[in-house]
Design a protein that fits this description.
This protein is mostly beta strands and 104 residues long. The protein has a single domain, classed as 3-layer Sandwich (Rieske Iron-sulfur Protein). Helix content is 0%, strand content 41%. The protein is globular, with a radius of gyration of 13 Å. The two termini are 13 Å apart. It comes from Staphylococcus argensis. This is Nitrite reductase (NAD(P)H) small subunit.
């Protein structure tokens, strides 16, 4: 059983509500999102349909909309909402002393 390692990806002050931020960890492109409720989410930044950059999409509630074709993706589960299908990876996020970490 492998243990996930927290990796610092940003500072909390860099995140703006409803505006995604792209970070690169190794060969993975990850989108960070700060919702209006103050929750921080991290998901794979590449839309499963047309490979759009999700960090450039519109955030509404707990969802992000792909900027290329408006596919709606749940920030909690990574599930694409019906009638579309697909899924992106979701990563655990922690904040410690203003530093944002994701667990990989």
């Amino acid at each position: 059983m492998s243990t996930k390692t927290p990796i610092k990806v940003a500072e909390l002050s860099e995140l703006k509500p409803l505006i995604g931020k792209k970070v690169i960890v190794g060969d993975q492109e990850i989108g960070l999102f700060l919702t209006e409720s103050g929750e921080i989410h991290a998901i794979n930044n590449i839309c499963p349909h047309k490979q759009g950059p999700l960090s450039e999409g519109t955030v509404s509630g707990e969802y992000v909309y792909c900027p290329l074709h408006d596919q709606k993706i749940d920030l909690n589960t990574g599930e694409v909402q019906e009638p579309d299908t697909g899924c992106v990876s979701v990563y655990e996020v922690t904040v410690d002393n203003g530093d944002v970490y994701i667990c990989l």
